[in-house]
Amino acid sequence: MSSRSKKRAYVETYGCQMNISDGELMEGILEGRGYRIVDAPEDADVVLVNTCAIRDHAEKRVLGRVAQLNGLRRERPGMVLGVTGCMAQRMGEALLEQAPYVDLVMGPDGYRGLPEALARLDADVPIVERPRGKKRGPQLAVLQLDMDENYQGLEQRRTEGPTAWVPIQRGCDHRCTYCIVPYVRGGEKNRSAVEILDEVRALAEGGVSEVTLLGQTVNSYVWEAVSFPQLLRRVAQVDGIRRVRYTSPHPNDVTPELVAVMAEEPAVCEHLHLPAQAGNDRTLKRMLRRYTVESLLQKIDMVRAAMPDIALSTDIIVAFPGETDEEFRDTLDLMRGVRFDDAFTYKYSPRDGTPATRLPEGDFIDPDVAQTRLEELINVSRAIQAEINESEVGRVEEVLIEGAGRDEGQVRGRTGRNKVVVFDGSAERIGEYTEVVLERTTGATFSGAEVDAKVAVSM
Ligand code: 5AD
Ligand code: SF4
Fold it and tell me: How far apart are CA 48 and CA 68, in angstroms?
């Protein structure tokens, strides 16, 4: 046997939290089957690029990265290069044609079979024949979507730290007309509440104090008789769990029951990420979001009535095909009306196979116009964010120390309201909660000082 009997695997993840969580799942599956997980592709026998397909830009970047990793593969005979995740599912075998050096293409429902797929590659048993003229080895594509696959019973490998992602749902039953997710991740599949709670308990016993429940429309979760609000309450009551977050909810499933649980359970953070996507009814309708601006505002009123101090964030897409300038202005009005603490803003990106791509050609917005709209939206949202954050300077907030700060001797943490704060402290204290006075803001993040540390200094 060689000096290293264990195969080494490296997983590089792009995209959303769900994908990060899937990356941890793949690592867990591989580790459970004898692989050693390493931190650099140079050290690995198996290199997996876990991809995102939500926007064209994300895909282009990843394709560039895969081509770059092929350089490594050429230097290291025997290295397996795999592409997993949403782009792998979307492009499928076309990816093997376009990037013939890729050995394995695997969609998000295939990870359970990852060790077998790798073994199959080792044994030279392809599913897809190499395109003509290819010199090296087999290629393999695992692209079956599986209505029953929710990865029940499998362990994730988590990076050390006080926070953890907990996927509770995969796939999506909506069909927002711009979105590729339902086509690459299939319909909604929920995990057993028993298993989720066991996992959260085990995480808490292992020192995790903050969990984020993940799902594409996380608040539509239901398992047997357990609804999302009920699950949220049970998770919030697990011993050792001090903070619970969830992302991303669909506005339609923000119910009075959910709001009550958020307000009543001290562990549920006072932060809600609520993707609005647009602030105009005609656009929302054509996006098939299934709510109106008015009903969205009513939801926000309901949330704020129960939790006046809650921080809100959102996702917005500008330049959806057919969006007029006036309709775009409605989105700006929504931003000014609601005053979100944070906004993730995107230009519409056509995704093959989604309904919006079939809108009349003349509807597609000129890229310069789209860029101008995006910049205007970013300016409005940043200005609001800066005003809100400036008004919060002077507050004392509980911060969970999550990591080292950029400067030596500093640490970085987050408040329950999801605001990032940097302050003096030692990285040994990662995982601790402490009271911090917010002293300054850059507009987006804060710097501050620990209340206890201040007392110590002034004594
Ligand atoms: N183009 C631009 N943005 C998109 N999103 C989803 N699909 C697209 C697309 N085709 C955005 C939505 C979603 C976020 C994760 O990505 O705002 O909430
Ligand atoms: Fe995409 Fe809409 Fe499902 Fe979100 S709810 S994943 S935007 S289809």
Answer: 13
Dump the DSSP string for 32-93.
HTTPEE-SSGGG-SEEEEEE--SSHHHHHHHHHHHHHHHHHHHHSTT-EEEEEEHHHHHHTH
Residue 274 dihedral angles phi and psi, to the nearest 5°: -125, 95
Structure tokens at 51: 């991809």
3-state secondary structure of 203: helix
Q: Are 87 and 52 in contact (CB under 8 A)?
A: yes
**441 alpha carbon – ligand 2 mean position (Å):** 33
Q: Is the distance from CB of 278 to CB of 320 less than 8 angstroms?
A: yes
pLDDT at 378: 98
User: Is the Cβ–Cβ distance between 218 and 168 less than 8 Å?
Assistant: yes
pLDDT at 50 over 90: yes
d(CA 451, CA 434): 8
Distance 100 CA to ligand 1 centre (A): 29
Q: Which two tokens stand for residue 278?
A: 């647009």
- pLDDT of 4 higher than 60: no
Ligand 1 centroid from CA 23, angstroms: 21
Cα end-to-end distance, the chain, whole Å: 64
In this prediction the pTM is: 0.94
Q: What is the three-class DSSP state of 149?
A: coil
- Can you name the residues that pair with 412 across neighbouring β-strands? 403, 422
Q: For each of the domains in the chain, give its residue range(s) and CATH number, in order of start.
A: 8-142 (3.40.50.12160), 160-269 (3.30.750.210), 271-391 (3.30.750.200), 396-458 (2.40.50.140)
CA-nearest residue, atom 6 of ligand 1: 179
